[in-house]
Q: What sequence folds into this?
């Protein structure tokens, strides 16, 4: 019983959107709309699922004083403060012009941290360009030539060299790049569809977890 | 324009920005502190976000405001809560029920999104009439040949021998050109982020600080 | 060729310094290089330009702070363009990590810059979980997905959205997207509900959208900071009275050009050394 | 403007029907537009579609040229005798309007109204009453139904065949030859092999595929006695990797040379993990690096350091944004689907094998359809390609 019910639920929940895709009758579309609205709520709970395991991992680290436990403590404290600002406060700008704490911490805490973390990659791309990207075979050579044309074509310098340079870059994007991207999209779509079908017919059961 | 000292917010943002940049020199405790604050805030942000933007307006307020009309919202509410029962060993099997509904729904939606929204239009977009100006014809041939050879490259049911060998070879060349384009664009993207951060450090923090110090 | 080997193994941090200086100088002393317009961006501009006063568009803030430098200028340029056209903007976000805050910031900036009115010129319905579920539900009834706007005002009480029930009541959907969300607007919303879709995306994801655009699944694509600077240029050419408003993307492109030249030099120089040392080994 | 859900057939029908009806005498007050109303196909019975011939000649001269001239749509339910209500406003040139929110099985009457300046309004003759009907199938989505059924049949069919032991051929991925060569070279040089299984846990298919390939590499290192190290960022992946490597040493007949510490945990943070792995590379100078699985931006750091210490590097991922960097910095890169095909080739797992075969057959079908479509399109036949339109 513990296995059959989830399998039936999964097959039912996956088949229904497919049926609603093809059958436009009033009854089917109305429940389809309700199911979509319910899923918005269930997805909200699912979004927070990872937090429980995060708290477990960090609490264990702090309790057992494993190496680097102070950082685990910082994660928990920062989490608690931000969650409290969210659950008990509001978001956006206060009527008197300041920001509610939830939005303030996001704008002056989270935003600079995330942006800077990703901007560091510009340095790594530069150093890798110098030390790692080599024309070691035909494939890498084609790749680097394509990259150089695009990089030159996409900045004003390209046009200064010759007005046709930006057009060559655009041509590469419009034809060869489109062809390859299309092949990858079709391949990836088939892979994802195959995975969906395996779950829909009950061959694969990712929802059963370790039990 | 009256430049006063950078506000408290700018100071916090600048400090955290420099902590992350310090990783470029080498991994250090300041970076790890900033990294932990980042992890903590992002988890806390999800909690506030879900509550303020979805759970309140779509679930709690309708249920508390007009229960009669919205009692059916108890079903998604129950399914959502059941997800958390997996952390109680004895009852973990019940949480698989709501996980099955959640995963099943998105599997069904994803199947048609890929077949109907990706494969059909992309296949149709490749059935290009090789007519019209030589530019369009050349472009059409390149797209057609490119898609066909890339699909052949990712074909695993027969060895790349006979006519398939040059076709697969041509397919990999198309892939490499598009990877080159992605490489170029990625470099552009990463550099834009760096520009964003340095512009903030210079214009929103360093300049007001220096000018107001010099201004006395 | 010993010195060539040595040069190749220079410490990574020296390269970091070069990039840092290359970026810093044009930020302090902008150069002001020209902007060249590309067809995909012009296609989006024309789509908005064809709209008539009173038409409504859906603008989805599907990106976070780490995509700000590329997508914020896009949002500003599109919002200014819509405001000048008298086009109503319905703002939403389906991206969890900061989408709603990016929306709040951009719309507030429009309000201060051009005195656009919250509730009549634009409305911000905030963030909603569910991704594809929310996208599908908005096909029939937006109010069911967004019962209130980001400030808690009921959907029914917003003057702007009174006669907007679903996608068919809007002329265009523009998604400013960083992740796969942009593709969902195409292979789910456009494919199943027919509303024309344009995507403003980060440079990293731009190449993928050419395949969708060429198959007429998207009407146009604005790619990265370069695309943003092009849209800024198009809006300023069409509406000269907007001159003087911040054009962060166009200013950013100066720096982009310098750092690109540095990286192009690194690739060429690194490979030159590589070819020289390899020939020496073979000789 | 293509009206949502208006199939080509209806459009043709309206044109033919319009010509047959007798044109009314050109009355000054009445708008001489002939309006046709029919049930909107493939809907839940709450919508009717209005069509008219957008011939400017039918309009008063003053408005004929102006392309933006708009007509108002007026509706009245046949049952209630109240006046016509205004339900929409559309450019005349569109030639169509889709009214929705109607009650099924209720007859409605429509007419067009045009503000002709100086306050007076011209109205067309009311069209024949029409009733919206609930349809059982979205006819324009038959193409999606065909592709869904075909794909399901192929995938399920091949999986069941594989489970029944039918041998399914998959070509040996050239990436595996590159792995053999890399392990061989590392053994000659007597130096270590480093295997990084990606930075995400085991619920990601690419991590599972990587662990399959790790088993293959571990069997080789067990047989040749080469040292293997597997640094991890995720505890679950580490536990699975340790099991796989232990079993590989067992199968290769060298259980005693398996060292528990060779598969170890470093840290959970993305960039700190990359920095730590770089430290191992610079210190121990492994002869071969394997970077196979789900990677994000740290792929750059790993492949760069690996290249700078002269290691032979094999990479493999389905993360399209990271592939350009792996191709430029590594000696061999398995692209996207090749990663799954390689693990299917090695494991011969019926589930993965059957799926890949099913996908392959669909790829062959799509290839054939594209070639046929292009030929027909060039020959001027567009019906075939239009059948694939996503409506």
A:
């Amino acid at each position: 019983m513990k296995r059959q019910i989830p399998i039936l639920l999964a097959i039912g929940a996956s088949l229904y959107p497919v049926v609603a895709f093809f059958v436009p009758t009033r009854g089917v579309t109305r429940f389809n709309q309700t199911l979509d609205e319910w899923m918005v709520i269930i997805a909200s709970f699912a979004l927070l699922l990872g937090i429980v395991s995060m708290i477990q991992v960090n609490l264990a680290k702090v309790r057992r004083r494993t190496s680097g436990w102070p950082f685990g403590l910082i994660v928990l404290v920062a989490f608690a403060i931000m969650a409290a600002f969210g659950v008990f406060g509001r978001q956006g700008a206060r009527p008197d012009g300041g920001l509610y704490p939830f939005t303030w911490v996001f704008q002056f805490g989270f935003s600079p941290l995330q942006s800077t973390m990703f901007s560091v990659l510009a340095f790594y791309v530069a150093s890798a360009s110098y030390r790692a990207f080599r024309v070691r075979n035909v494939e890498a050579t084609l790749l680097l030539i394509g990259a150089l044309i695009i990089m030159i074509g996409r900045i004003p310098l390209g046009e200064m060299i010759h007005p046709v340079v930006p057009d060559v870059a655009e041509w590469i994007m419009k034809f060869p790049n489109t062809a390859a991207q299309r092949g990858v999209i079709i391949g990836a779509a088939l892979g994802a569809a195959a995975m969906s079908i395996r779950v829909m017919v009950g061959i694969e059961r990712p929802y059963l977890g370790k039990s | 324009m009256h430049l006063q000292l950078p506000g408290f917010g700018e100071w916090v943002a600048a400090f955290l920005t420099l902590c992350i940049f310090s990783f470029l020199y080498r991994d250090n405790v300041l970076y790890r502190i900033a990294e932990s604050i980042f992890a903590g805030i992002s988890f806390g942000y999800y909690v506030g976000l879900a509550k303020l933007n979805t759970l309140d307006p779509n679930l709690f307020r309708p249920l508390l405001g007009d229960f009669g009309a919205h009692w059916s919202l108890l079903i998604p509410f129950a399914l959502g809560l059941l997800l958390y029962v997996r952390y109680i060993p004895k009852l973990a099997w019940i949480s698989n029920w709501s996980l099955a509904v959640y995963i099943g729904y998105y599997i069904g939606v994803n199947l048609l999104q890929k077949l109907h929204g990706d494969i059909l239009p992309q296949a149709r977009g490749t059935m290009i009439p090789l007519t019209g100006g030589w530019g369009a014809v050349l472009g059409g041939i390149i797209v057609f040949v490119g898609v066909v050879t890339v699909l052949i490259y990712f074909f695993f049911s027969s060895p790349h021998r006979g006519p398939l060998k040059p076709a697969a070879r041509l397919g990999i060349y198309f892939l490499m050109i598009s990877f080159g384009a992605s490489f170029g664009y990625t470099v552009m993207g990463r550099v834009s982020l760096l520009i964003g951060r340095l512009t903030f450090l210079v214009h929103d923090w360093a300049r007001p600080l220096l000018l107001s110090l010099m201004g006395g | 060729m010993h010195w060539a080997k040595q040069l190749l193994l220079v410490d990574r941090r020296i390269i970091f310094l070069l990039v840092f200086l290359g970026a810093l100088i044009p930020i302090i002393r902008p150069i002001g290089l020209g902007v060249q317009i590309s067809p995909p961006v012009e296609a989006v501009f024309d789509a908005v330009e064809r709209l008539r006063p009173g038409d409504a568009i859906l603008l989805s803030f599907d990106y976070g702070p780490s995509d700000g430098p590329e997508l914020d200028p896009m949002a500003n340029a599109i919002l200014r363009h819509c405001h000048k056209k008298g086009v109503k903007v319905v703002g939403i976000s389906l991206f969890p990590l900061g989408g709603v805050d990016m929306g709040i910031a951009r719309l507030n900036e429009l309000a201060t810059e051009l005195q656009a009115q919250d509730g009549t010129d634009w409305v911000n319905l905030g963030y909603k979980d569910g991704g594809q579920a929310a996208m599908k539900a908005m096909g029939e009834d937006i109010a069911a997905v967004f019962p209130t706007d980001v400030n808690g005002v009921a959907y029914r009480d917003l003057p702007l959205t009174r006669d907007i029930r679903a996608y068919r009541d809007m002329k265009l959907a523009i998604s400013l997207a960083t992740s796969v969300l942009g593709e969902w607007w195409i292979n789910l919303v456009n494919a199943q509900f027919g509303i024309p879709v344009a995507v403003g995306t980060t440079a990293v994801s731009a190449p993928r959208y050419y395949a969708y655009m060429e198959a007429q699944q998207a009407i146009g694509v604005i790619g990265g900071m370069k695309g943003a600077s092009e849209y800024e240029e198009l809006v300023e050419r069409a509406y000269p009275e907007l001159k003087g408003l911040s054009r962060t993307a166009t200013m950013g492109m100066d720096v982009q050009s310098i750092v690109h030249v540095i990286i192009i030099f690194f690739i060429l120089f690194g490979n030159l050394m590589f070819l020289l040392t390899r020939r020496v080994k073979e000789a | 403007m293509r009206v949502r859900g208006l199939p080509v057939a209806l459009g043709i029908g309206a044109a033919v029907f319009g010509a047959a009806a007798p044109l009314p005498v050109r009355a000054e007050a009445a708008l001489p537009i002939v309006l046709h109303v029919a049930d909107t196909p493939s809907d839940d019975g709450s919508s009717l579609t209005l069509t008219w011939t957008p011939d400017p000649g039918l309009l008063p001269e003053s408005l004929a040229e102006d392309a933006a001239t708009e007509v108002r749509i007026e509706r009245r339910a046949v049952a209630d005798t109240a006046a016509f209500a205004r339900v929409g406003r559309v450019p005349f040139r569109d030639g169509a309007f889709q009214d929705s929110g109607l009650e099924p099985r209720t007859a409605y009457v429509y007419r067009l109204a045009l503000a002709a300046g100086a306050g007076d309004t011209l109205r067309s003759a009311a069209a024949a009453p029409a009733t919206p009907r609930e349809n059982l199938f979205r006819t324009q989505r038959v193409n999606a139904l065909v592709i869904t059924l075909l794909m399901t049949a192929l995938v399920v069919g091949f999986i069941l065949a594989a489970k029944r032991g039918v041998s399914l051929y998959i070509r040996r991925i050239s990436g595996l030859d590159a792995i053999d060569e890399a392990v061989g070279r590392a053994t000659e040089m007597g130096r270590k092999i480093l295997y990084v299984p990606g930075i995400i846990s085991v619920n990601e298919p690419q991590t599972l595929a990587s662990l399959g390939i790790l088993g293959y590499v571990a069997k080789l290192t067990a047989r040749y006695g080469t040292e293997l190290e597997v640094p991890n960022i995720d505890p679950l992946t580490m536990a699975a990797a340790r099991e796989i490597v232990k079993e590989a040493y067992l199968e290769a007949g060298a259980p005693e040379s398996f060292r528990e510490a060779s598969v170890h945990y470093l840290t959970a943070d993305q960039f700190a993990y990359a920095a730590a792995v770089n430290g191992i590379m610079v210190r121990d100078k492994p002869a071969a690096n394997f970077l196979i699985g789900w990677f994000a931006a740290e792929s750059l750091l790993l492949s760069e350091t690996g290249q700078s210490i002269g290691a032979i590097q094999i990479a493999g991922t389905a993360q399209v944004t990271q592939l350009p960097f792996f191709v430029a910095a590594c000696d061999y890169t398995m692209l996207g689907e090749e990663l799954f095909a390689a693990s299917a080739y090695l494991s011969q797992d019926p589930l993965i094998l059957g799926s890949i075969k099913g996908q392959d057959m669909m790829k062959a079908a799509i290839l054939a359809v594209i070639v046929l479509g292009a030929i027909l399109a060039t020959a001027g036949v567009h019906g075939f390609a239009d059948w694939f339109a996503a409506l």
Q: What stands out?
A: Residues 150 and 173 of chain A are 8 Å apart (CA to CA). Chain A touches chain B through 122 residues (CB under 8 Å). Chain A has three domains: 4-47, 58-119, 121-197.
